[in-house]
Design a protein that fits this description.
Keywords: Oxidoreductase. It contains 16 helices and four strands. α11 packs parallel to α13. The two termini are 23 Å apart.
């Protein structure tokens, strides 16, 4: 296992790394710099829009930052750039002036104009002030773009990347959507609450579309929309453990995103406003995401850690080009440092073995 006081503090280029083992588990602005390679590739990535295909998320900036945090060498980051960039599309040329960003919530366009808006606000008021103003406004839409707006902002903030942070805020505004579930609490554990909701939606009409489409359909189901879904006394550890347990039990693309979302949420907590209210939005999104996963016809074997430890896991992940492999391994490592649960290594090892 890694020594938490020393692990990964220096990447292969010799630069000091910023990661939770260095005391940044609560989301404070990372004061370490990214490698020159990562900065150059992030600059090149600005020519791509936040979405491609059928509203799929551009993972490239997140992938580059995660690789850099894991100490990936320059050639590995270059390969990951090429592998991910080939599917992306150029930024939309729209630069409509933005006076009030709230007017553009969920409009699905004008990311360039929104970026300029946030850059101007940050230049005038400071980036911290912008984040403290806007993160609480955006958290009701934590599920936007299948959690990727949340994740992209968290990575940008942790990397201390000014332009990327503004770009992530613009992306979140553009894709903003809410699930609008009731805040009523119930005296039950997260697992019991999720099990009750799963029974309520059993036999539902088929969900369709991409992850966020299916989540919105599930949230509108009468068995979900009209009932209490918030466990009383909920805390972030419980949500993270619920997401981990679901994904550990079953390799599933949607469930993977609930694990990486919990990591991202933890990084953004200092800017989230009232913590209980913020956590409500995360929980509703996580539990609704699990409802969209169809029951397995057979129970797969749970992930194990046979033959791998964290150093081997991180070394392998730092050479990966698949965005979800890279992000899952980085989030799992960070969450392991926060919570000490061995299942995080198991899910990372399983994901790497499946490449």
């Amino acid at each position: 296992m890694l020594d938490h006081g020393q692990a990964m503090r220096r990447g292969r280029s010799g630069r000091r790394q910023c990661h939770p083992a260095g005391g940044r588990t609560t989301g404070r602005r990372c004061m370490e710099t990214l490698s020159d390679t990562c900065r150059a590739l992030l600059e090149r990535s600005k020519r791509f829009g936040p979405l491609y295909g059928d509203r799929l998320a551009n993972h490239l900036p997140m992938t580059l930052i995660a690789l850099d945090r894991m100490g990936a060498p320059a050639d590995s980051m270059a390969r990951a750039f090429d592998a991910n960039a080939r599917q992306l599309r150029a930024r939309d040329a729209e630069l409509s002036p933005v006076t009030h960003a709230a007017d553009w919530l969920g409009q699905g366009r004008n990311v360039g104009g929104l970026e300029r808006y946030f850059q101007a606000c940050a230049g005038r008021d400071g980036l911290d002030a912008v984040l403290r103003d806007w993160v609480p406004r955006l958290l009701p839409g934590v599920s936007a773009s299948a959690f990727h707006c949340l994740i992209r902002l968290a990575y940008a903030l942790d990397a201390g990347e000014y332009d990327e942070t503004c770009a992530a805020l613009a992306y979140w505004v553009m894709e903003y959507t809410t699930l609008d579930l009731p805040p009523d609490t119930v005296n039950a554990t997260p697992a019991a609450t999720a099990a009750r909701l799963a029974v309520a939606v059993a036999g539902h009409a088929a969900w369709d579309g991409i992850i966020i489409d299916r989540m919105r359909q599930a949230a509108r189901h009468p068995g979900v929309a009209g009932t209490a879904i918030q466990p009383s006394g909920l805390d972030l550890r419980q949500v993270a453990q619920f997401a981990l347990g679901a994904y550990h039990a079953r390799e599933d693309f949607t469930l993977l995103h609930t694990v990486t979302a919990c990591h991202a949420f933890r990084l953004l907590l200092p800017y989230a406003g009232e913590p209980r209210q913020a956590l409500r939005y995360l929980w509703e999104a996580v539990v609704v995401a699990t409802l969209t996963v169809e029951p397995a016809t057979a129970t797969p074997a749970a992930a194990t850690t046979v033959g791998i430890d964290w150093p081997a896991c991180m070394a392998q992940a730092a050479r990966a080009t698949d965005a979800h492999v890279v992000k899952l391994c980085w989030s799992a490592y960070c969450e392991h440092l926060a919570y000490g649960d061995a299942r995080y290594l198991a899910i990372a090892a399983r994901k790497l073995a499946a490449q």
